[in-house]
Amino acid sequence: MNDAEVVHIVQNATGPAVISITVILSIIGAIFKNKILSYLGNVVSVILNRKTDRRKIVELVHHDVFNTLDRAVYEVKVQRYFTGKEYDAVKTRMCYDFTKVKSKVCRLFMRDFVKQKGIDGACPDNLKSMIIDLQNDMHAEYIRQVSQKWREKGIPEDDVKHVVHLFEKFRYDVVSSFSHRIESIFGSCFHRNNYERIVAIFDMWAMGIDLLPRDMHTTFENLNGKFKDIKY
Predict the structure, then answer these.
(1) pLDDT by residue (tens digit) across 40-95?
(2) Element (H, E) at 82
(3) I want to staple 91 with a disulfide (CB 3.0 to 4.6 A). Which of 15, 47, 81, 105 is the partner?
(4) CA 148 to CA 70: how far, in whole Å?
């Protein structure tokens, strides 16, 4: 293309047709101004959030829920239990062992969960089922392990079941709230991807773990001195 052709194109670009198109586009822009601005805002938002969308669930091995587990164990460790006005060493150790086992099991299950391959792209309904199964499996496993530990320490089977029942009774409201919140998280449009859904789940669990020392204290304060003379 030579210089003469370029000049010819530029001269034609200022013709009536271009002016008409410009006027029409200006009118359309004025009429649909808000919609256009909203669309551009969404495009900018997608661009700005693209980095967040690339975050992987495996990064949640560093979530604060694991620090919260450690803190709960320490808080229970320094608790002391009494029968009447006399220190009850067995009841105190039973409570501490329960908390240690629960913390160990939950830590292991949650870490393994976030390391699963393909979890970032899982269907939300499938992921919800996985979360519910995880919560149930954690509970069943730490109850199994702590019950076995207590039996090995000489606690009668009926008493083991009684203590477990008391704990589950006092934790019922927390566990029930977990179930409601899981349904809410997976039914919400505010969590854009599986990473954000799991963050919300872990935040919820961390809140429940913060309440664990209180519930352990309530459980074991309601026990009498029947374990006091056991060589635990």
Answers:
(1) 665 555 554 555 557 899 999 999 999 999 999 999 999 999 888 889 998 899 99
(2) strand 82-83
(3) 81
(4) 22
